[in-house]
Task: inverse folding
């Protein structure tokens, strides 16, 4: 564990403020849920909670089914990282941090399709050339009005373009995962 040198007191309601620098570094936003753990030495550990992460095995199966149906690279994300991939390089995507462009798109709660003048966006923060994607469909997963992740279909094949069918499949997947979160 890394010491920060920051000390905070617990107030009369039992609350403690997580310093702004730590929230910014760990990308914890107002309203984000945190999991609380304790260990045998009496330490309290706060971890950013990923509701989609709870469905990891289910998300993997769904990504696999979408990939088999469409033949496209299929990704499922939470708000920060890619949690499931099928049809592409696990090393290039799995557990990678999302690009700011993708985060903004998820926050906007709108389906994104590259067509006409719309250009592909970076999926991970490490990508430098989103132009390698010839087509993308991105559908945010929204639960109780809050965006919690996304379902993404990608292709790098020059002769393939996503259309209404892929948009509907992606929207259906994101709505289905959203319903699973509400149960």
Result:
């Amino acid at each position: 564990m890394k010491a920060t040198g920051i000390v905070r007191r617990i107030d009369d309601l039992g609350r403690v403020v997580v310093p702004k620098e730590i929230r910014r570094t760990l990308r914890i936003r107002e309203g984000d849920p945190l999991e609380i753990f304790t260990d045998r030495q009496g330490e309290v550990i706060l971890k950013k909670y990923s509701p989609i992460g709870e469905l990891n095995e289910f998300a993997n199966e769904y990504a696999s089914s979408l990939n088999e149906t469409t033949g496209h690279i299929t990704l499922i994300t939470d708000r920060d990282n890619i949690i499931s991939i099928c049809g592409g390089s696990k090393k290039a995507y799995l557990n990678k941090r999302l690009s700011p462009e993708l985060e903004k798109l998820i926050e906007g709660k709108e389906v994104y399709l590259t067509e006409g003048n719309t250009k592909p966006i970076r999926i991970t923060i490490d990508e430098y050339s989103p132009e390698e994607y010839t087509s993308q469909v991105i559908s945010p997963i929204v639960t109780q009005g809050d965006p919690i992740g996304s379902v993404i279909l990608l292709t790098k094949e020059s002769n393939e373009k996503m259309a209404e069918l892929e948009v509907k499949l992606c929207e259906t997947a994101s709505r289905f995962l959203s319903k699973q979160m509400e149960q």
